[in-house]
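Request from the bench team (R.T.):
"We need a structural guess for the complex before ordering more 3DJ. Sequence and SMILES attached. Just send the tokens back."

Command: build protein-3DJ structure.
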Amino acid sequence: MGTGARTDPLAHIRDLFDLDDDVVYLDGNSLGAPPKNVAARVQEVVSRQWGRRLIRSWSEGWWEAPQRVGDRIGKLVGAAPGQVVVADSTSVNLFKALMAAVHGTDRAEIVVDAGTFPTDGYIARSVAELSGLTLRPADPDDLALSDTTAVVLLNHVDYRTGRLLDMAKLTEQVHAVGAKVVWDLCHSVGVLPIELDALNVNLAVGCTYKFLNGGPGSPAFLYVPTEAQPGFHQPLTGWTGHRSPFAMSPDYTPDPGVSRARVGTPDIISMLALDAALDVWDRVDLEDVRAKGLALTAHFRDLVEDLPGIEVITPDGEWRGHQVSLRHPDAATLMRRLVERQVIGDHRPPDVLRFGFAPLYNTFEDAERAATALGELL
Ligand SMILES: Cc1ncc(COP(=O)(O)O)c(C=O)c1O
Ligand SMILES: Nc1c(O)cccc1C(=O)C[C@H](N)C(=O)O
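Reply to R.T.: structure attached below.
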């Protein structure tokens, strides 16, 4: 199982992360590992920016941080500057995006992929209720769209199976019936090249605590393309989305740009921890990240697919993200015992073992150690 001869152009990047070598961490698709520079940045933000500069820091970079950090994420998702804002949670951004997408529509339905991560389905249900539309879960292979479809919400990578959807093809399908598409990029941002502008995606959301390593609960992002910004009807009219927040006007006038998607005061400590975590992306090429992710997951798959009782449910080939999901009737117990052996993945009910591979810090040896541990348990 040795991988000594394997070339890994990202091998040196692991040193930028604060990881224990005796732990095989394969849960970066749930909570990314901390880059080493984050602790010092947070210390700087607390001690100097907050401590010494106090409220002056709002006009020394804090106020614009949601757009500035948004532009850094924009580079990773194929969005030109001024179209991504970092704010709130993915759930809240989904609410804003879906409410804006159905605003003023005379169409009847919202479609959501049937295997969606629960929060997307719950939020889509609320938006349907509030807007008087119906919600229809559908198989992404057979969306059955029509001219009654207002908006389609799709997960780029399925959190359970790791399947990657064809964003180009599906976006085109949705546009062909005159509907809008909202993409949830939680499991794809930072591991594969994404081209939101080039594909004319209507709206997109994603979290930053998985493969972007922003830290627990780091703020999410929302993409609103420039041409859609004037028509982006913000349902949560908080003051930070106002055109002139400090005018303290009694009337709400939205910011003309992407800032209209902001709501309330940003969580600066978390936002600037994320900003620091994003530094690592200045040193890597997403194509290399993708290539390594495919190689890591293929290697792990090869090592585990013939183990007794295991069924691999992650698609083979290129239509997959950076996790390998295995079905086994004793998945919960197996994962508990793997974690006892310092191999950390996760379990998704009822019977799925998930192993996420973060190409910036996971190694081929991690894949081997995890496969060996699982083999011994089985
Ligand atoms: C596809 C997807 N959407 C949304 C979320 C989470 O949303 P939030 O950031 O609001 O917790 C997750 C993971 O928690 C997810 O996997
Ligand atoms: N967001 C999470 C959290 O706050 C606690 C524990 C896990 C999570 C996750 O991100 C779960 C993840 N989205 C999943 O794919 O299952």
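Two things stood out. Residues 89-91, 117, 119-120, 155, 159, 184, 186-187, 207, 220 surround pyridoxal-5'-phosphate (ligand 1) (CB under 6 Å). The first strand starts at residue 24 and ends at 25.
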